[in-house]
Amino acid sequence: MDPVPSRMNREMIWDEIKKNIKLDSVAEVGNICPTEVDAIKLEYQNILRIDSLQEFTSLVQLDLNNNLIKKIQGLDSLINLTWLNLSFNRIEKIQGLESLQKLKVLNLTNNQITIIENMDKLENLTHFFIGSNLLDQLENILYLQKFKKLFHVYMKGNLFSNEDDYQLFIVAFLPNLKILDNKLLHRELKEKASSKYQADIEKRNQEESRKQLAEEALQKQEAELNLHKEAFVENLNGPHLFNSMFDEDFLSSAIHSVPGVGDLLQSFENQMVGLCEQLFHRGLSEREQRDRELKLLLSSQDEVEERYKNQTTLVLEDFNKQHRERIKKLKRLTAQNSASEEISRGYDEINKLTERLMTLEFKLISKLEENIGNTETSISDNITDFSETAHEIFTECRNLEDDFHHKVQEIILATLENVAKKSQMENLSQDFFTDKENVMHALDTNHKHHLGRLSDREQKLLSSASSWKIAFFKEVHDKVTQQNHMRISDIHRYAGFLRKELEGLQ
Amino acid sequence: MEAELRSAFEEQLRIREEDEKESTKQPELSVSHKNLEFFNPQSYTTNSAVEIRLLNIADSFQRQYAVLFPDRKPLLLCPLNECGVRKFVSTTLHPSATGLCELQSWQACASFVANFMSLELLEPPVDLPKRLFSPTSVLRTRRASCFEFATLLCSLLLGINYDAYCVSGYAVRDMCLLDQSRLPCPLLDPEVKEEEGAQQDPEDPLRGLRVHCWVLVLAGSGSIQENFFIDPLTGRRYPTDSSSFLGVESVWNELNYYVNMQDCRNGCSGLKFDLEDTNMWEPVLHGATSRKHLIPDVLKRKENRRISSEDEEQPRVFQMPRSWVTFITIHEKDLENLWPDGEKVTFYKKSKLERFAPYLNPDGLITRLTTYKDQDCAEVAVVKEWYKHRNDSLEEREVNKLQDSTSERFKYGRRFQLLFHRVTSLSSGIERQMEFSSYVRPDYLARRIWSPNEMEEFYEGRRDFLWYRKVIFQSPDQIDDSVCWKTLIRRINVLTVVERFHRNTTKPANEDVAERVFLVSEGQFELTFHLMDHRFIPSKKILTKPPFKKFSNDCVSTFQMDLRAKPVSTLAPYKILEALQKEEDQLAAEIKTSLKEMEDIIACRAQEEKEVKLRVRRKEAAPICKDKEQKDDNRLKIEEVDVLVSKNLDAEEARRLYHCFLDEFKDKMVAQANFLQERYEKVTRELHAKQNQYRRNHLTMTEKQQEEYQRFCSEKTIQKKATQIRLNRHKELAHQTYKALEQKLQQNPAFHPHLKM
């Protein structure tokens, strides 16, 4: 006889929740907020479809076992779920678990699943039960290798469970596993398994470590580049700048092939690289200094804050003690006159407290701002210093370029004359060197282009340095101001809370 | 059977001995003299040819010296020894390594020598002694002059490779007479340096004339960085320019004797101790090997001998002959029976120090330090007592009359894990403070303070982050403490409980409770949460127990810091309230347990104090040996049996000696086993403590600390294992070696004929 299917809806869920809470003491259940419910148990309800769970976002435990569910769905908003029981249903495919990142326990026993899949996001999975399903590919287990925290797996009753090396295979490829099919794994078994599949495992391990190494190298490179960017000197170590100057030259290959130019170019490059390196190292050391300065600022800010925090705590403790006494007294007082007197004294005290807290807060903020101001001055000095150095170095670069340009011009002119003479004698003409004007024009263009590149780089350095400074200090200021606002509103809110307490007694 | 026989025999023996003592109250000297003859080898009673030559050299040196320096006092070169034979002082020094691990530093040796013997003052105080007894006989009689003190200490120091010398010279009155009443007690903290020199030393008519002998230790060996003096009477260290020492006549070690040629008019402040410099120090034996050259010399000689074994008969300078004194042996028992009469009283500035041998006092008292309010030592300020071997693990007790408090400190591991207990009488009643080893207790309690209407408890390392609890009781009217403890607990009425928690970092600060106040009488709970980052006012929740169990929103008032927090509803506070109510019940039970424990501890202490017993470490708490004869026999080494062979022992004596040997050996084995066991326990305890500490702090530890911890653990584990192996091996072998010794003794011709009965 087929059971009568039922629909899963809000009513059903709330009924269930109410059942779990002793209703006699909670007067109005309507007050319970869906986000406060942390567990729902709906077993043996003949549910066909998971539904109406969207608002229970703080749900931690969900039991839907022994129903008629065919598809996993409707769980997307349950991001806090750590326990999901879907055993004894009719599920055929693993899906719909993408948002359950906190899930630790997943029970899918007694379903009709044929393949383990779509679980990539479940990084925290520790217990996985998938016994009595239709899994048939033992290799499919390798999918579970990505779950580093997984230590308990239940797989009994699948199609592959009868295979001879079923157990050894699982143990060998899931080395973090402690319990398999409700049995503790002994060391002997683990050793046996690992010796059997040693070759495979080693291969895998090697691959993994290679991948890891590559990733690490990449990360390291990135981190280094970031560091250079923070120092505003990215790509200044080595011939990057020099190469970028010559990347769009006209007739470069022809010009460079002229005897003498090659050497000139080489020495020019050496000088340029030297200057760039100088700038680069200077940049790094300046950055380090800034870093130190900022760390100092942070620690001093923390210190100041801690000091004022302690002072505030003392003031509050003092007040709270008094306040508690007053309320106690008021509760006992019956005579109206003395009560109202006491209450008005209470209000006075609250005002005094507010005043004291505000004074402290004001002192704190001015201290914090002062600290920031000091640091800002020294950082500005640092940046100005560095900018000047950079400017000097770039000027030198430009001088070098001018020098280079003139020398090349001379050589080319001399060569052209030579060629002209020779061509008269040998009747051998290269169309390139015939057109003198053309060549000189190209040289001029190149020169302008080189200078442009240099000033571009300089501009970039200067602007990024100054904009970093502005952005950074704006952020710091904003943060401090925001915190200040927050604390001031806290003080007012607290005073309001205290007043209300007194009002309640009137 | 055998044991019975033996005990009967011993009984008999003791009676006989007592009779002897009673009947023949001979003067002590004759008894010791008899012994001396019995034990003293020939070297004590005669001089060898080399020694005679040395005496001649010394005599001629003395004559020349008297001619050259008619103003100076004659030197102490060849005093008589205990057998009335003249001996050169350097040969009275016998470098002896005792082999006891307790005596491996100068501090230990100095304090042993100072504490083991009592002083015989020089008579008259301005003259050198006529006699200088050997260290061995001095150790037996336990009475010594300052010269004998220095000789013994110097011998011990030389035995453990210090570059030590005896110094003959002049010192101030207090030092010569061992009067320390103007010095601060070394056991007191030197924190109060008040009225320094306020009281001038009274003028001493003999100042600068009083003869004294002390020890000089030179830098260079035994990791000594700086020359210094040791006063052998107190064991204190002094700098070589100390104002207590007024002049040096001569110094000597076992190799040579040096006479001071430097000016001592300004005390010892300007003295140089470069003994090689003949301008400053005149040696008695010219060209004799000094300590500095001892080792290279020996090596060279060996080398020479190897190269040319025969014609090595160069004209050699006269070297100091070997000591005539036999090897100095100190037994472990001696380390325990320090004070010559079992106790010693020393007066210091504003304080009195009494010291007792262990097991002498039935309550285990070994040291008592009394400090006084005034100079005349009339009004007691603080009495501090140290105990040992007590079965209630009491180690220190301090009765402070100024604060009206009594504090007791206990050894680790006693009942209730109690470490410290202080009772202070205040005007409002009695305050009790107790400290515990928190990590062995299931509740992690570290400290508890009980004052009339309050109880404060401090915890360490709890999993629930609780670190403080304060319980305020309704003030009971006129309750006399101690008498009414029982009734007090029954009538206890809790008003308020305050609990404080450390930050639990797995929760957001805003939801992590920092303080929990149970206002029991009002049926209210106040929760204060931890501070959020950059916020100074904590969130708060005040919950009131609903009347008639009807919960509604009126029961809660909340001050929420986090504006984004979840909307207020009924369920969450209801759950909190429910949990708090449960906690409250539990709290009541815990408070009751605490009070019960307090009561138990007080009762237990009272009971323990009534029947103090000492832990027996060896056989029946070794009685203080006042009977010298028996003691001397005990001192005999097993190896010296052969000496006895020549003597014809009568049956009884032989049997006694035989048992003495066996007992001594057994003691040694037991002591060794005890030592190993103690060590094992100590290591285990250290490891345990460290692990506990780690368990509590490992989350906040730096990598370096972690590493250190690992290293510590592995080291201790190895130590532990090694000790255990040694212990097991010792246990296995002890029996066998004992049997072997027994057999060997039985076969010894000295005992053999007498043991067959």
UniProtKB/TrEMBL annotation, chain A:
Pfam families: LRR_9. Residues 203-231 form a coiled coil. The keyword Membrane does not apply. It comes from the Eukaryota. It is found in: Cytoplasm, Cytoskeleton, Flagellum axoneme. InterPro entries: Cilia_flagella_integrity, Leu-rich_rpt, LRR_dom_sf. GO terms for cellular component: cilium. Keywords: Cell projection, Cilium, Coiled coil, Cytoplasm, Cytoskeleton, Flagellum, Leucine-rich repeat, Repeat. PANTHER family: DYNEIN REGULATORY COMPLEX SUBUNIT 3, PROTEIN PHOSPHATASE 1 REGULATORY SUBUNIT SDS22-RELATED. Belongs to the DRC3 family. This is Dynein regulatory complex subunit 3. It comes from Oryzias melastigma (Marine medaka).
